[in-house]
Amino acid sequence: MNPVTSLILRQMRAPLIVVVAVFSIATLGMVLIPGVDDQGNVWRMDFFHALYFVSFTATTIGFGEIPYPLTDAQRLWALITIFFSVVGWFYAISKIISLVQTPIFKKAVIHSNFKRSLNQIHEDFYLVCGYGETGTDLVEWLANKEIRCVVIDNNPEAINTLEIQNYLSYVPGLEADAKIPEQLAYAGLSRKHCKGIIAITNSDSCNLKIAITSKLLHPTTTVICRTEHKDFENNMKSFNTDHTINPYDTFAHNFAMAMKSSSLHLLNEWLTGVPDTSLNMPIDFKPGHWILCGYGRLGQRIYETLKKHNHSVTIIDTIADLKQDFHRKFPDDDTDFIIGTGTDEHTLKLAGVENAVGLIAGSDNDSNNLSTIMTAQMHNQHLIIVARQNEMINQELFYSSYADIIMHPSEIVARRIRTLLVNPLLITFLDECFLQSNDWINIAISKISGAISEVKPHCWTIDISRDAAPAMYRTLAMGRKVTLKNILKSPIQRQENICCLPLMIERNDKKFLLPAEDFIIQTGDKILFCGIGQAEYHVSHCMYDIHSLNYIMSLKNAPDSLLIRYLTGSTKQKRRNND
Amino acid sequence: MNLEKVIFSFFMILALTLNFGFFYGDVHNPDHHNIYELYAVIVINLIATILKFGDRSQLGAMLLATSLVANVQLISAAIVWAVAAHMQEAGVTVATMATIVSLSGGAVLANIISVILLVLEASILRR
Asked: Do A20 and B43 count as a contact with CB atoms less than 8 A apart?
């Protein structure tokens, strides 16, 4: 039995017995006490009428003395009936109402609803632990892509926020502590549909615990972890956590990309960004002097990148210990290390803001970062500004500041997980691009901008397999030759090309970057596309629907119905014989 | 001795005995079947049912089911009686009486199963 129903029934025993007892005694009394009918004869109420009388009296409806006016003896009994039955009735009702309001009942209802919605998920889902900034961002995107997910968070506020969201697919949320294995299992880890677990709480130790629990209880589930410390990251990797994401490392990698080639950075921003948002402009990194405000986890990584590209750097940080650490780590380094906040004019001038080419506002305080940016901008209009944004609520401020690159840890993690979950091929593609020459990347950028409009493109992967692309699979199985050019036509009007570009084809560990139009597709290929949203819909549709595929490939449609196929079968046979 | 168990068993056995008392006699003869007894059976059965609410064990579920069956049988018998007595011109005929008594006979069976389960449960428990 459902725990909620069971709880109600158990609590309702006493009130219900009171109601039954009062009703039955009152009814019996009404039957036993003699009355008088309209003729003056002795008349007794039978059980039917007595129960009717007691029922409308007890519920305070009170139709009156029917069918005949009561005698004084009956009225006395009716009086007693009224007091006892009305009290009993209200007692039962108030008991139900108070039961509904108890916290234990509410909790039972919440758990039972959560369990029911989990049971209704009959497809693969991801378990997201932590509904903070990253979680909100990620869950919104997953849900609107109709990828099922389940959220747990130990903060009731977060779950309440989730409840009022209006996502395309329903996301069940549970207030639970992900550190406790039992609760993690209850939240869906132990279900066969649980495809992966995403640990993005703000505590590394909690994420570590989630990873351990998942790997021990369910070694087959994919585990993606957010981590900010190297030792935790190594710890997670030691027991085969599938993916660990360190926002600082990821950003430092992107920054290194930008340093190496601004086109590469642009390519990364365009392809991994949120589709249909405005395109980033290229940033030109000139060699010169850089000011690094904040020498924390982010600052240290960026410093290494800057040094690798032979830029001179001045570091500003408030903590003197960091300066000592710095000198101990790089004893031969003559880099200036100024103790200060970097928000005031004096410190910035001392660091050489007037002649610098770039400034990194990388402290963990948003107000300080914004202040640094504004002060620096006043002294040098041509600065390249990299800003670290710590909180989502300051998004608008950073957008309207002069920052050229905004580094927002939650956004970086969310973006990385998005790509990992739906488009792992894109990561391979970007890694391959990192190895290519600058000219090649510029060609790629110009090809992409030819295929897309003024907004960031959608990226998607098509797997030429029986399940993922049945129409294509059938066509290839028939021995037809299909080139990329064939499938990049609109299924509405085949003379028109659709706005998309195949970025890469993966075939048995071999990768073909920017394949040519006459590339012949084979079964088992994985094709990475980028293009406008409509193109994604069109291409995916043609992979499923044989009629559309035949249409865009200008082939005659084979009859689908059994009868027509039978009738035309003989003629086809003849034609083939003639050939 | 557990007072709760005494009350529980009391109502269940009383439901059976009263039910049997009403059922016993000539099926067609209204004189053999007292309306007050039927009334008492219904009330006692309702109380017995409520006492069984909320038990999540398998045995508890079966006990509740037998009681619900008995209730359905007895309340239909009462409805048949009320309809015959007040809404039909012929009143409570021999045929109607037979229907009422046979319905209560079904309830007797359900109550017997209920008591058997109760005895079984008691015998399984170690003293």
From this structure: yes
Query: Do A21 and B61 lie within an 8 Å CB cutoff?
Result: no
pLDDT confidence band for A579 (50 / 70 / 90): very low
Provide, as residue numbers in chain B, all residues whose Cβ is less than 8 Å from the Cβ of A6.
54, 56
Interface test with A, best of B11, B41, B50, B100 (most A CBs within 10 A): B50
Contact A408, A389 (CB under 8 A): yes
Domain positions in chain A are 3-101, 121-245, 259-424, 457-552
Of A111-115, A344-348, A387-391, the range with the lowest mean pLDDT is: A344-348
The pLDDT tens digits for B1-40 are 788 888 989 999 999 999 999 999 888 888 889 899 999 9
The separation between the first and the last C-alpha atoms of chain A, rounded to the nearest angstrom, is 71
Give residue for tokens 């005929």. Answer: B93
Q: What is the per-residue pLDDT across A425-454, written as a single tens digit (0 to 9) for each?
A: 898 898 888 888 888 888 888 888 888 878
The answer to whether the CB of B37 falls within 8 A of the CB of B18 is yes
pTM recorded for the entire structure: 0.71
In chain A, which residues have their Cβ closer than 8 Å to the Cβ of B55? 10
Task: Please give the CATH architecture assigned to the domain spanning A121-245.
Answer: 3-Layer(aba) Sandwich (3.40)
Give tens-digit pLDDT for A454-489.
888 888 888 898 888 888 898 888 888 888 888 888
Q: Which amino acid is at A508?
A: N
**CATH code of domain A259-424:** 3.40.50.720
Average pLDDT over residues A207-230: 90
Pick A6's closest partner by Cβ from B35, B54, B86: B54
The CA distance from B70 to B107, in Å, is 4
Q: A121-245 and A259-424 share one CATH topology? A: yes
Q: Could you state, in order of their start, the residue ranges of all structural domains in chain B?
A: 3-124
Helix (H) or strand (E) holding B110: helix B94-124
Which letter does DSSP use for residue A455 in this model? B
Out of B36, B54, B82, the one facing A10 most closely (by C-beta) is B54
The residues with which A385 forms a beta bridge, in sequence order, are A359
